[in-house]
Prior knowledge:
Shape: rod-shaped
Helix content: 55-70%
Low-confidence stretches: none
Order of helices and strands: HH
Distance between the termini: 119 Å
Number of strands: 0
Radius of gyration: 40 Å
Amino acid sequence: xxxxxxxxxxxxxxxxxxxxxxxxxxxxxxxxxxxxxxxxxxxxxxxxxxxxxxxxxxxxxxxxxxxxxxxx
Length: 72
């Protein structure tokens, strides 16, 4: 009778040891999305000055073309 109780205790202990050592797998994915917003502040001083110069030059070119007229 002692051997039976001892054997049940050993089997019970062994089953607890094997069950409690199981690792649970949890997968988590982290998604990061970077978005760059172009605003007037994100442009440098040189870029803003260049855009102003480009627009003024384009206006002068348009005026010169209008003075020349249409060749057709």
